[in-house]
Amino acid sequence: MKILAYDDNPDFGGHQAMACHGLEALAAEPSIDLVCMANPANRRLAERLAQTGIAPLLETQCTTRKLQGLRNRFSPGGIRDLAARFAALKPDLVLCIQGDIEQSSQAVLAANRAGIPCASYLALPHRLAEMGATLGALRDRTNRSLFQKPDRFIAISERMRQLLVDRGCTKPVAIVPNGIPLPQAPRARRSEPRTVLGMLGRVEFKQKRQDFMVECFCRFPKHFAGCRLLIAGDGPDAKRLERPGLLLPAIQHPGNGFGQRRAIARREGPRARKQFGHSIAVASHHGNAARQRFEHHQRNPFVARGQQEEGDATVKRLRIRLPRHELD
User: Fold this and answer.
1) Backbone angles phi, psi at 285, to 5 degrees
2) Cα-Cα-Cα-Cα dihedral sign, residues 197, 202, 207, 210
3) CB distance 152 to 173 below 8 Å
4) Distance (Å, rounded) from C-alpha 137 to C-alpha 127?
């Protein structure tokens, strides 16, 4: 079976880190011929796949851009060209890696046009209006038909499956939870006795609110006496975070990457604050206290409405599976 994995997003995010684990498993299956097509601007994705032996990559001729769902309606030429390219490659299945329903949507429509079965790995089927996106309500209406285009979906949890149904999806949905490799490394000692507060994730103020955490850390020094704030990750607001005068000596932003975030989670033992993801799991696996914060705000939706219960259940399952580690 020939599978064409497709991702035309120029940025590398958490859903791609998880998707790479799945692609690695597919590549190891003798009966599967895996071909990957990725945006040439996404070097981190190419490097991550190369580490697992998936190389070389085919370059996408399309790029996910802002308002991509609307662009699909008014600029169909790229979809026609991509459909012709898919037909020439003759895959048995096109697997589209989608962070949200607009990302890599051109490939979904191109696969439909070429008559090739399509599966979507869709990490976040949330409504864009709830995410505070530009023209969110209009885009939600425009994108409604995209939930019927793939032949099947892959969701990361039961709640995400239910969100797909709520968005109008009637196609089969398989649930593949997020996971991490579990190295047998011993727990490292903290590099210093101070309490380390870690924010591990994409540096994007609108969603992750690192700016708000820095402001709180600076405005209430008594509450954070004896603490060091460590912000790990990169993203569109990383340079804004590093502007002169913003970071105090007790605040550090070492910068890039999922590998570094995993290393920090192992080494420093941060009390990590982020949406549930692999950084939390890595910190917990190595015996470090990990506090999972679930909240909902119209413009800062760490968790969609109704996910509080699922989040609590996830933490309880981790307590059972990893009884020797602390999760609070």
Assistant:
1) -60, -35
2) positive
3) yes
4) 8
Kindly report the backbone phi and psi dihedral angles of residue 59, in degrees, each rounded to the nearest multiple of 5, phi listed first.
-90, 135
**What are the phi and psi torsion angles at 193 (to 5°)?**
-75, -15
Closest CA to 22 of 47, 48, 42: 48
122-131 pLDDT, tens digit each: 999 999 998 8
pLDDT digits (tens, 9 = 90+) for 162-179: 999 999 999 999 999 887
What's the one-letter identity of residue 289?
A: A
* 27: alpha, beta or left? (left if phi > 0; alpha if psi -120 to 50): alpha
Strand partners, 119: 95, 152
**Which residues share a beta bridge with 186?**
none
Name the token pair of 152: 């099947």
User: What percent of the residues of the chain are helix, what percent strand, and what percent coil, each to the nearest 5?
Assistant: 40, 15, 45
Counting Cα atoms < 13 Å in the Cβ hemisphere of 313 gives 8
pTM: 0.69
